[in-house]
Design brief:
The protein is α/β, with parallel strands linked by helices and about 240 residues long. The protein has eleven helices and ten strands. Strand 1 and strand 2 form a beta hairpin. Helix 1 packs parallel to helix 3, helix 4 packs across helix 5 and helix 5 crosses helix 6.
């Protein structure tokens, strides 16, 4: 089951499959696509897992074992890669709240987000090599952009699994929170990003041209939201 919560410009997508450690099955893909569609107007999006054991434990091998041909494998990979691409291309900031371990395909989902916030007791790793396969959902390419090609090859090629602190040191995780503060912390961070300027900043840090960055600033400058905020500041100064 994939759950969607919408409130005050923030969409929270939760993969809730405790019997499978939140693994991705074909039906999960259907539900993820519908959740992303329904969240289209949100200013920020969070993807997380239910419970505290797993964010996403990868693909659901019990269901994906039915795929026995190269064509079937490629079709599945393209489909889930497309979902990860949609997360990456979401107009507003996307936060992966790593409530539990993110392994294999789960790590690929995590790196499709703009920001990864992790509980301090989780592990993350691109360990597909333990099944004699490789990342197929765009995760290897995104990992390389985060940590560099050499380190990405070392991590994914060896199947290394990192604890949260190590993942933060190499740039794979952006913020680590104590477990007791995790739920409150990721939600506060996500709410702080659910605004129009953060969406514009996402476009700029993603590689916008200078003229695009200036145009985005100018659009924000003339918006009513800016002037309401400016009036509050000016009134306090009087």
């Amino acid at each position: 089951m994939v759950e969607l919560e919408l409130e005050a410009g923030l969409a929270v997508v939760t993969i809730n499959r405790p019997h499978a450690r939140n693994a991705i099955a074909p039906d999960t893909m259907d539900q993820l696509e519908k959740a992303i569609d329904a969240a289209a107007d949100a200013r920020a999006l969070v993807i997380t897992g239910a419970g505290d054991r797993a964010f996403v434990s990868g693909g659901d091998l019990k269901e994906l074992a039915a795929l026995r041909t190269e064509r079937q494998a490629a079709e599945m990979a393209w489909r889930m890669r497309g979902i990860c691409d949609r997360l990456a291309a979401f107009p507003g900031p996307v936060v992966a709240a790593l409530n539990g371990h993110a392994l294999g395909g789960g790590a690929e989902v995590a790196v499709a987000a703009d920001i990864r916030i992790a509980a301090d007791d989780i592990k993350i790793g691109f360990n597909q090599v333990s099944l004699a396969i490789m990342p197929a959902w765009g995760g290897a390419e995104r990992l390389a952009r985060l940590v560099g090609p050499g380190r990405a090859l070392l991590l994914a090629g060896s199947g290394s699994i990192l604890d949260a602190a190590s993942a933060e040191r190499v740039g794979l995780v952006d913020r680590v929170l104590p477990r007791a503060e995790f739920d409150k912390g990721w939600r506060a961070a996500a709410c702080s990003l659910a605004n129009a300027p953060a969406a514009a900043i996402k476009r700029v840090v993603g590689g916008a041209l200078p003229e695009e960055a200036v145009a985005a600033f100018a659009q924000l400058w003339v918006a009513e939201e800016h002037w309401r905020a400016a009036d509050r500041v000016l009134n306090r100064a009087r």
